[in-house]
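Take a look at this chain, tokens included, and explain the fold to me:
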Amino acid sequence: MPPLFWILARNKFLWIVYILMPILLSAIIYSIFADALPRKLPVGVVDMDKSTLSQELIYDMQVSPTFLLKQHYNSIAEAKKDLSDGNIYALAVIPYGLQRGVKMGVEQKVAFYYNTQFILIGKALDNAFLQIMTILNAKIQTGNNLVKTKNMNMALGQSVPILPHINPLFNSKSSYAQFLVTLILPCMWQILVALGLLNLLKYPLRDSLDLWARFSFNLFVFTFWGMAMVFFFSILGYPLVGNVTFLFLGFLMLGICVSGIVLTLQGAYQNATKSIGLIAAYTAPSLAFAGVTYPQSAMDNFAIFWSNILPISYFMKFYFQQANYGGNILDGLKILSQMLPFLLFIPLGFLFYKLKGKI
């Protein structure tokens, strides 16, 4: 029965999992979100008014960093195919009589269609267009008030009587990179933990000591990569205001929980193919159910259940509590304590190996 060093020497795929994949996946994910904010998203416009006001609105869209005005259309029907095919992400429809209606004081509606299947892109487009319309409304109202008051400050004050002073406490630059990379990489990390341990366990074991040696070695490797991930986030300028040593404990806890689940499945089936299928089905939804991109407060009962049975959900809560908010250690320990039930998988997996006579 092969010892640990023999497995490491013969199994080239393990070295890919241990060294190449953490670096490669991190580089790919970061390169995707390197721009931090979605910019120059292709959009179209249907201008039925052909007025000075409609041209001003189109100009505001052109100078917005979010929009790339790709195409002018004569009708919504003409633009529908491009919107469906993804050639444009959104379509602004300026109605006939817009300028005349505004001058007469009649409420006008400018339609903005976008594809909500692209959640983050849709939100960026919606926010950018809302900002453009808000500024345009303020300019129109200021012009009307200026005719009456002959005083710019008074006209502006009547147009925008309350100016919001909004101070974001986290992710002040609204960076999608900071929001998503700090979630995606830990989700990938847990899958690599599972993949590494499963590749070690598929070889026959000599005794229980050999089992714990493989378990511990895999955990050591990926705890190192977990802390490397934290320092990578720090280099990128992401918040790291909490206790770094305490974050090490969080990665160790998550690694033990995931490894325990792998140990139980492989111990029960003794078949790497079946085990990897179940592990993939279990961990794949982590990105959606970790409680970050899809908050638990908005989940239905099934989604909440799936979120609660994923160790990554508790880890992400712990990570944000420490790295972003600098929470105290006691509160962090309370979050980590919610992961304690997952530790029961370790003796359960060990029991399966004993019952099947594998150790």
Observations:
- The two ends are 11 Å apart (CA to CA).
- The mean pLDDT is 85.
